[in-house]
User: What shape does this take?
Amino acid sequence: MKIEYRNNVEGINWQDVSELFQLVGWGVKDPEEIRKAFETSSYLRFAFCNGRLVGFGRTVDDGKYYALIVDLVVSPDFQKMGIGKKILADLREQLDSYLFTTLSSAAGKESFYLKQGWQRQKSAFIWPKSDQQRADHVKK
Assistant: This one.
């Protein structure tokens, strides 16, 4: 199985991106809003298998000091094949010159990031927007 990686939004079907968000349990997202969000992101990676979107990730940053890796998503049918690892490594490499690079893990996926060499922060905080977000991300 050959995976093709792209780093731009050219030819992306935003409905497919929306469906992948839903498939991994991240809720319903409007394809047009997703497009706008991705077009303002600094770095992007999309993964395709035989023309089918199977994963993606993106970053947001201030251009110099602080960067955040967001929306690392891989279709459940394609997880544990190195796709997420490759996307994460490519994005992290793009952010190598930044002073501070962070990410927030989806609930239950923390071990994936630890295996890639990421480390837990001592002083990260969140302002929960929902009970589910509180349940997923607030330490008790």
Notes: Residues 3-103 form a domain with the Aminopeptidase fold (CATH 3.40.630.30).
